[in-house]
Every structure is written in C-alpha cells, then in structure tokens.
Amino acid sequence: MRTALSWRGDVLVAALAFLALAVPAFLLGLPSVLDFVVRFAIFGLLAMSLNLLIGTTGLVSFGHAAFFGSGAYAFGLLMQSGGWSIPAAILAAMVMTALLALAIGALCVRLSEIYFAFLTLAFQMLIHSVVISWVSLTGGDQGLMGGIPKPPFLGIDLGNQGHLALFSLFCLLASVVALRQIVRSPFGAALRMLRDNPERAAFLGLSIFRYRLAAFVIAGTFAGLSGVLMSLYVSGAFPTFLYWTTSGEAIFMIMLGGITVFLGPLAGAAIFLVLNDRITNITEHHGLVMGTILLLLVLGLRKGLLDFVVDAWRERRERRA
Amino acid sequence: MSQHDRGIGRRSTLMAGAAMGAAAITGFPMVARGQGRQPIKIGMPTILSGRVAQLGVSSRNAVMMEIEKFNAAGGLDGRPIEVIVRDSRGVPAEAARIAREMITSDRVDLLFDGEPSSGGFAVHEVVRETGTLTLHLNSETSSLSADPRQRFWNAFRIARQGIHDSIAGGAYAAEIVKSRNLRRWMTVSPDYAYGRDTTAEFLEYLRAFAPDVQVVGETWPRLFQPDYTENVTRLTQGRPQAIYSCLWAGDLVTFVEQASLYGLFNQSQFFGVNMADYTTLQQIKQLPRGVHSGNRYLKNFPPVPGNLAFAEEYNRRYQTYPTNWAWQSATAVHLITEALKKVGGTDPRALANALKGMTIDSPFGADGKVTMRAEDQTLVGYAIGWGTTISADPYVENMTTADWSMIFRHEQEWKRAKGWA
C-alpha cells in the first residue's frame, strides 16, 4: 500500500512539475526557453541515468556516453531506413542500447573502482572508433547526415519545436519517476548496500554481478533514450556524442548538482547548461570563464549544490532541535 | 563549535560570491528588445577555440572587414548589417544549438555557417527545418550541394568544393606525370572521411588523365597525429616517384618538417593539395623547394590588384595574411550584399531567388567573376591553380590555372556516376 501511494505521489509530483515547467515556457512563447527545455531534458536524463551508477551503485563509469551515442545512432539509422514510426524506433533504439549495455556491462561490472572506470572508457573509445571508421553506415566523422524524418504520431509532430519540448519533458519526467521507483525499491536498497559494503551483500547471498549488471543495463537504457532525444533535437547523430568528453560533461553535471540527493544531477544539468549558453554568448574564451566559475563552485561548496543545500538544511534543523 | 561556524561562514561567503558571479553572467532567460530601424542581423557559428581556431578567426575577420565596408557605404538604404559570431568549439551538436538559438532567440535574418563540414552538416539540418537563408562558408565536402537529397531552397555553399579540387589537381598532376615520367605513386592522407574521399577522388582523376600511373602504397596517419616517423619510413621504403597528400594545417606542417629530415622531398615529387595557405606556408620553418601545391589562398593568385589589395588590407588590420576560409567568407559577404541590394529587403525567398545563378565581379574568380550556380546552389568559377613552392614570400611560383570548362565536364560525369545528375 505504501509503495503504491508513493508511486502515485511521484507521478503526481512529476505531473505538477510538467505543468510548472511547460505552462510558463508556452506562455512566454520564447523559442529560446523551448530550446532550453529540450536540452535540459536531454542532459538531465543523461546525468540522472549516470547517477544510478555513480550515486546509487558506487560505480564511476567514464563510458556512459557510449550508450547516449548508440541510442542516437540507432534511432537515427532506423528512422532514415524508413518504415518505422517514432515510438517504435524509440523502443527499438532503447532495446538495442540495453543489449549493448548488457554485453559491455557483463565484461565491466566484474571490476570495480578505477579498473571499472577505465574499462568503460576503453569500450566507449572502441565504439567511437567503430563509428568513425564505419563510414558507409555512420557517415564517419561527419556524422549521420541527411536529416532524420519525423512523421507525426498521435497528433504529436516532433518537427515542431513546442511539441518536441513537451515530448522531451514528458520523457524526462517519466524516466525520473521510473528511476525514483527503482532507487526506492528493494532492488535499489540492494544496490546501495553493494555500494557501501559489497562483502556484506555477498554474504547475505546477493549476486554482486547480477545486481550491478542490472543497474548498468538500466542506466545504459535511459542514456539511450536521452541520445534519442538528442538526435531528434539536432536531426542527426555525431561521433562527439560518444566521445569521452560527453561522458565527462555528464559526470561534471552530477558533481555540480550533487551525488547523494536524487534530483542533484538535474540541478547540475541546469547549472551547466545555463553557464554554457551564457558564456558562449559573451566570450570567446569559453573554457577559461567556465573553468573559473566551476572552480569557484567546487572549491566553495566542496560538494554538489543540492548536497550542500540539503546538508545545510539538516544541520540547521538539528541545531534548532 | 565556533570553528565549525566559521567554516560554514567562509563557505557561504564563497558560495554567495560565486552565485553572484554566475547570476551576473547568466541573466536567463533573454528578453527580446524593442526594435526601431532594424539592422540586418546575420548569425555566424564558427570555430574560435581549439586546433582549427586560426581558420575560424580568419573567417570571422574577413566577414567583419567586408561588412564594415558595406556599412560604411550606407548599408541597405541606411540599414547596417550586424553580425553575431559565436564559438562552437568544433562540436557539431554545439554548432546546431548555436544556429538554432541565433534563429529563435536572436532572430537573425540569415546565417553565415562558418563551420567546416562536420558542423556544417549539423547546421544544414537545422536550417532545413527552420527555412532560414543560410550560406555555408567553409564546408568543402562535395555531397553537401552535389547530392540532391541534401539540397533545399534556402542553403547555399560559398566555398571551394572537394570534387573541383580533385579534378583540377588530377589534371595538373597528369601533366607533370607525362613530362617527368612519374609512374610509381604513394599517398599519405589523414585517416577520416575527408582524407579517404579526397584521396580516392584525386587518384581517380589522376588515372583518368594519366592511365599508366600505379599506386604502390598508401599510409594513413591519424588526424592530429604528433609523430609521422612511421609514415615517412613507409614512404621512403616504398621509393615512389611521386606522393599525394591531403594532410592540412598543423598536421601538414609537422609532416613536412619531419619528412624533410629524412630527405623525402629530394627522393620524390610531392603533391600537397592543401599546402598553399599562409597558415601552412609561414609555419614551416624550412619550406622545401619544388613541392607541388594547389592554391588554398595566395595573395598573388589570381594575380589581380583586387586580390592583392584584399590581402594587404587584411594584413594591415589583423597582422596576418588571409586564409582559404577568409576569401570564401569575403565572397559570401560580396554575394549577399549584392542580393540584398537587388531585393531591397531581407525576404528569404526573394534573397534565395536573387542568389540563384548570380554572377558577381570578384578578385577571387578565375576570370574576374564568380557564380552561384543555380542548379545546385554552390559556388563555381573561383580561381583554382597549382604551382611549386619556394622558400620565401610569395612562397609559390609558376601557377597553372585550372580550366573550368574541363572541371564542369568531369564534374557532370562524376555526378552521373553517383546517380546525382
């Protein structure tokens, strides 16, 4: 009963968040806000999915962009082949990403810490090289060209910026609700135990390998979905999607927003994108300014923003009590 | 406890400072400002940081220089052109985002896409949807305009094109092959789509013009590879009579310097399609004599006063010489300002119609003119030539001008073979 209630509660909160974000975006009618919503959904979802590995399971993956990019390429290629509707292609792209994550994860999750991180990085660079070299299929370094057809479905036309923004927001919030249910389920509790004390979990009879692999596949699948949204947004897929810098940015968003608070990565994605956009508008020395601000944030807070806020709030409450 | 409190205090001070700094810069969302007598707005995503920054900066410089002239002469009935330039850092997705943002938030009237092919295709996809009039300044990949599936009414290429260079290069090299009897060839080109495609195209035309040429080996260095010893060794061991390369910019500089040490240029004739650009010529410490090169940009080719004047004014302003991206960008300004004057406004359909088939006088034209070809909306008639290097300014001599009627003929055959014509 409790889980059912909390499940409904999450959906309710998500629906309210949807209204709270979508209504002002449309009332303002500013295309820049709609654009921001799409990109926030993309990178928010990427960071949230990665945090299932980093924050919940304690596996720092440097290769998460492999699934982001695979989702984008799989979806783009399916749509370009013709004969696929968008929902079917999205599901197929997510299934393909899940299978890829299953294959890579089966080899990676036996390791932990730095070895795990480097193996994921190695697989990502392997996939990147394949995409670069397989010019006839992927377009090589020029990316998947020729545009991605967006036939309307159920009255939704993703060629329209407003529809794409709402659709991306819906995907983000639905995924966040799903991720929250996963994190709060017994399965999520097991993942946290694996993170904090793998030996104990093993003694209790949990299969470390299976649980970690399941987390890896789930995280990869959601990253695939965010890749699909990205390919819809730019009408193409590019090798930079699965380059290590994209993984790095996702890790950065998590660090900025906070690892331990569930919604931390979303806050991090928002901060990162706002900073990125404003800085490219005012200066050519993007790296210098961005680096300085991030340095100040990191040195000043020494943890993610939401981690900091939640800790400060708890401390204040304790002091009052 | 008091220690702890102080810690929090310092941290919150730091955080407040950082937050204020962030807020000062961000100020999101942007609000459209009221508009009076509007300037004509052009958005320009290009690469201003990283390895290709030099080219992106030269593209921007040339646009700014020519736009200033147009504005100083009164603009379009008093309406000046305003250019918004933003750095994509060479990331295609970022180029697409910036282009989209310029269209939707900055409400630009048209786009100058200052990206190379990778970002250029990303911008291409954005404007295919938005219907914004767009001039691609630096995408040389032939399919961008040659492939009918890539074509739509609002996108134009104002840049040289790979296939034109390959035909011109093949014809020039075939002449040298015949006069010096160079049969054994090898290639050294960067290992990515551009390198592979351009090399294959060059060899195709070399063989078409000189059928007895044999390619005895090829070596493919990675893009941005720092050390070419392995490739140079393969080339010296293969003992080719001639070598073709489409390495470019920093990679070509490094390769030429390392290959000089091994005496490669004494052993074989070297054909570098991307050699004759000042970014490369001036960077090589000891430029070997007699290397064959296509013109990227040279102030003495085409040898007309307008071209020299362009180079010198550019040099006076920016203390450096123009690049290939610079003449292309300047040509884009010349074409669009001509179209604006003809139309008398910024209606994209009318501008696109005016651009189609437009011929203008140009210091960069093979015969003093360049044309925006109507059928595939790409620039033709620009000066293409090949010559040999000398170690000091003007760096290249004995320029041979390519014959455009010959280029057109072979280009048409190439399109037919691809199923594009």
Give the tags.
heterodimer; A: 321 residues; mainly alpha; ABC transporter involved in vitamin B12 uptake, BtuC; disordered N terminus; B: 421 residues; alpha/beta; Rossmann fold; 2 domains; 7-stranded mixed β-sheet; 5-stranded parallel β-sheet; 15 helices; globular
**CA radius of gyration of chain A:** 20 Å
Query: Beta-strand percentage of chain B?
Result: 15-25%
Question: How far is it from the N-terminal to the C-terminal residue of chain A, by CA?
Answer: 32 Å
Most extensive interface, chain pair and sizes: A-B, 54 and 50 residues
Strand order of the largest sheet of chain B: 7-6-8-9-10-14-15
- Morphology of chain A: globular
CATH class of the largest domain in chain B: Alpha Beta
Q: What's the short story on this structure?
A:
The complex is a heterodimer of chains A (321) and B (421). By secondary structure, chain A is an all-alpha fold. Chain A is built from 14 helices and no strands.
Describe what you observe in this structure.
- The complex is a heterodimer of chains A (321) and B (421).
- With 321 residues, chain A is mainly alpha-helical.
- Helix content of chain A is 79%, strand content 0%.
- Chain A has 14 helices and no strands.
- In chain A, 48% of the residues are buried.
- The N terminus of chain A is likely disordered.
- By secondary structure, chain B is of the alpha/beta class.
- Chain B has two domains: 199 residues, Rossmann fold (3-Layer(aba) Sandwich); 175 residues, Response regulator (Rossmann fold).
- Chain B is 48% helix and 18% strand.
- Chain B is built from 15 helices and 15 strands.
- In chain B, the strands form three sheets. In chain B, strands 7-6-8-9-10-14-15 form a seven-stranded mixed beta sheet. In chain B, strands 2-1-3-4-5 form a five-stranded parallel beta sheet, with helices on both faces. A three-stranded antiparallel beta sheet of chain B has the order 11-12-13, covered by helices on one side.
- In chain B, a hairpin with a 6-residue loop joins strand 14 and strand 15.
- In chain B, helix 6 packs across helix 7 and helix 6 crosses helix 15.
- Chain B is globular, with a radius of gyration of 24 Å.
- Chain B starts with a helix and ends with a helix.
- The N terminus of chain B is likely disordered.
- The interface between A and B is large, with 54 and 50 residues.
